[in-house]
Amino acid sequence: MSQSIPAAQLRTQIANILHMAGSEHAEAEQVAANLVMANLSGHDSHGVGMVPRYVDAVLEGGLSPNTGVKVRLDTGPLLNLDGQRGYGQITGVQAMQMGIERAKQHGVCTVALSRSHHLGRIGHFAEMAVAQGLVSVHFVNVLSRPVVAPFGGGDGRFGTNPCCIGVPMGSRPPFVLDFATSRVAQGKMRVAYNKGEEVPNGYLIDEKGHPTNKPGVVVVPQSNGLFGALMTFGEHKGFGMAMACELLGGALTGGGTWHREADDQRAVLNGMLTMIIDPVRLGTQDSFEKEALAFEDWLRQSPNAPGSEGVLMAGEPERKARADRELHGIWIDDTTWAEIQDAEAKLKNRH
Asked: How far apart are CA 4 and CA 184, in angstroms?
């Protein structure tokens, strides 16, 4: 079963829980708004269902409320920022605000953000850039229980390591490509497990390395205490991209890579390497916009494939979901809602 909750009501309820967990009102409201926007965008895996994990991470000391970025290096076109285990919905926005300002000054800025708690939907940061007419590219690694198997491997060795690219398209909606390098996001397996659903072939292996359709293998420990693992998309190609995200988002930013046995800590730390480019300062703005729109027109002229609704651009499904869910509310399954209520109860009992 599930229930539909209006976005405004959900933002208020989640902000109240985050405030109880120690965040000042402004921070709680910003994090809640970001999480609800993920739900509105159709990415329930990065939405309010993360709140129980955030609460646990705060109680364990792995997530630090009311903490912003610390500047380690600022040369203008280069920024090295320490997220200090603060909410990623805060530190990621701060990093992007600084990067956008410097990209407008210098034409380009590379931002290395390390030790941020869970950044959430990376597309949010690309949307910040494209709203200013800027291009952005993001490589992210995940320091938490490793849930994705390397191509040819039989257990989890790294995280879902997302990659995101945002490109403004002039007067039209922007191109925002945001994807996990695993076949599917870990959070989507949590959502499927809570709904009692199985998943398609090719997504998962169980704790023995065998293919399975049961999402619980990466959500809860199995009979031997081990977990299964997600597969990368595109076989060796997705694995290569995942490794690139680990090397760039983790090693290069200074946040580190995963190379140890799993633990049961609830904190999720991200590193993110972001490159922001100003087409105006690059001197290609006019031709860039003209060619981008011409290419989109060319793609849309392709006839619909049998059974298809036609060509969709990256970012379109999210915009359609927002319009629908703003109107009809956000559906939260009963298991997820119960977990959110349990997290709230933990905080009440603490006081």
From this structure: 24
- CA dihedral 314→317→322→327, nearest 10 degrees, is 160
Q: Is 256 helix (H, G, I), strand (E, B) or coil?
A: coil
Is the same domain home to 146 and 244?
Answer: yes
Range of the domain at 280: 69-182+232-301
Rounded Cα gap, residues 58 and 6, in angstroms: 27
What is the chain's percent helix, strand, coil content, to nearest 5? Answer: 45, 20, 35
User: Within the chain, what is the greatest distance between any pair of CA atoms?
Assistant: 61
Instruction: Report the number of secondary-structure helices (H) and strands (E) in the chain.
Output: 11, 12
pLDDT digits (tens, 9 = 90+) for 81-135: 999 999 999 999 999 999 999 999 999 999 999 999 999 999 999 999 999 999 9
- The pLDDT confidence band at residue 1, using thresholds 50, 70 and 90, is low
Give yes or no for a contact between 152 and 240, defined as CB atoms under 8 angstroms apart: no
User: Which tokens belong to 206?
Assistant: 């169980």
For residue 117, give the 3-state DSSP assignment. Answer: strand
User: CB-side exposure of 80: number of CA atoms within 13 Å?
Assistant: 10
- 314, containing H or E segment: none
Residues 153 and 279 in one domain: yes
Residues 81 and 148 both lie in one domain = yes
Give all strands (DSSP E) within the chain, no chain letters: 2-5, 70-74, 78-82, 108-117, 135-143, 163-169, 172-179, 204-205, 211-212, 229-230, 269-277, 330-333
Average pLDDT, the chain: 96
Residues 6+ apart with CB under 8 A from 82: 69, 70, 72, 114, 115, 254
- Both 110 and 165 in one domain: the answer is yes
Residues 40 and 103 in one domain: no
Torsion of CA 126, 319, 19, 336, to 10 degrees: -120
Using alpha carbons, select from 95, 112, 82, 51 the residue that is nearest to residue 251: 112
Q: How many domains does the chain have?
A: 2
Give the whole-angstrom CA distance, residue 292 versus residue 296.
6
Q: What is the pTM of this model?
A: 0.95
Other beta carbons within 10 angstroms of residue 348's beta carbon come to: 9
